Every structure is written in C-alpha cells, then in structure tokens.
Amino acid sequence: MLRVLLLTLSVVAIAHAELCEPDAQNAFKVRLSIKTALGDNAYAWDANEEYLFKAMVAFAMRRYSSKSTTQISNVLLCNVTDRVSFWFVVTDSSKNVTTVPGSEVEAAIRMNRNRINSAFLLSDKTLQFLKITSTLSPPVEPSTPVWLIVFGVVLCLIVVGIVFLIFAGIQQRKKKNKKSTERENLEEKDEVTVTVENGIPCEVLDLKAGHINGVFAADDERFTSL
For the Collectrin-like domain, which residue ranges apply (predicted)? Predict the structure, then answer.
C-alpha cells in the first residue's frame, strides 16, 4: 500500500514538473523588481512569499469564476531565480494533471491585478506578468460633469461681453455729452462777444438785422415835418 502511495505521488510530481516548465503550454513568466520598488525596505523572496503568490493567484481564479474550486496547491511555481523571476501554471482542480487554459488565467490576473500588486507592495512595472498586458487605470471622472463646466465657461464669456458693451456704451455717451457741452459753450461765447474800441466796449453790429443810431434818431424826430 505504501509503495502504491509513493508511486502515485511520484507520478503526480513528475506530471507537475512537466506541466510547469519555461514556455510550457498555459505557463506564465513573472519578474519582480523588489529592490527597485522598495529600496532599503525591500524584502527577501522566500518560501513565504511564494506561498503568498500562490494564494493570490488562487484567489484571483476563484474570484474570476464563482464556481471555481481552485486551491493553493493548484498553483505551481518553477524555475525560481534569485533576481527574482519564475514561471507558474494553474492546474485543473478536478483532474489535477492538466492546466487551466491560459486565457482564463490571464483574465483572472487582469481582473485582480491591483489586489495582487498591493499584496506585494509593487506596481505593474515592478511586478510583471510577461505575457499579460498591463491593466490600464480607469479614467478619472471629474466630480463636475463636463457639460456643466462648458456651460459655465460660455456663460462667463457672455456676461463679460455684456459688461464690456455696457461700459463701452457709457464711455461713448460721456464723450458725446462732453462734446455737445463744449459746442454749446462755444456758441454762447460767440453770441456775447463784445468788441472794445478806444477803450469803450461796443456791441457787435448785427449786419442782417441792422442797428439804429440814437443820434440820428433824435435828429429825425427834431426835424419832423408838420
């Protein structure tokens, strides 16, 4: 019985070793730049970190499919290097000798990429899934709708234009009033102009209406015919 158990375990181990190989079907390579990301606070990559990675991948697979029964044991790592890089595959929990299609693993990783990055204090640039494209951050939506911002700008421009027109009209009216007042003052000055002859002020003779000399008027009355 013991021999059968050992034989079964060895077969499973050999099968797993064949499943997790560089460039194997449904396998993904991961590269971590812990020192670059954290500097002096960088942690060492050890068995505990590998366990956490397996747990996060299993979590991503279970979250991607609510019917999934993926366990930590279904996530296999191989070719781990000191720099740190490794390959991983996810085995089918029902058969345990075949791998989950790479498209499903990729979709699960992309959906939970932020959670995986946060677990290792890294980002898409320092925790790289080489065959899985980086997820783009959702676009930041402004708290104020764009149409409201545009409407506010247009309204401000209209108000500024109205104020400018009113101010320009007031200035133009003031200029017209000033010119008309100066013209009226000039006309009044021309009407009351008095000439001075031999030191005696004399009124200006109105050539059109004529002017009656008082001396000659008195003579005319003296010599009026009977």
Answer: 24-226
For residue 222, being part of any structural domain is answered with no
Is residue 185 situated within a structural domain?
A: no
Long-range contacts of 103-108 (CB under 8 A, 24+ apart): 104/61, 104/64, 104/65, 105/26, 105/28, 105/57, 105/61, 106/28, 106/131, 106/132, 107/64, 108/57, 108/60, 108/61, 108/63, 108/64, 108/65
**C-alpha atoms less than 13 angstroms from C-alpha of 133 in its C-beta half-sphere:** 4
Quick check: is 121 in a domain? Answer: yes
What is the crossing angle of helices 102-111 and 47-64, to 10°? 100
Domain that holds residue 39: 13-129
CATH number, domain at 35? 3.30.70
Between the two ends of the chain, the Cα-to-Cα distance in Å is 180
Amino acid type, 100: V
**pLDDT tens-digit map of 95-121:** 767 889 999 999 999 999 999 999 999
For residue 149, being part of any structural domain is answered with: no
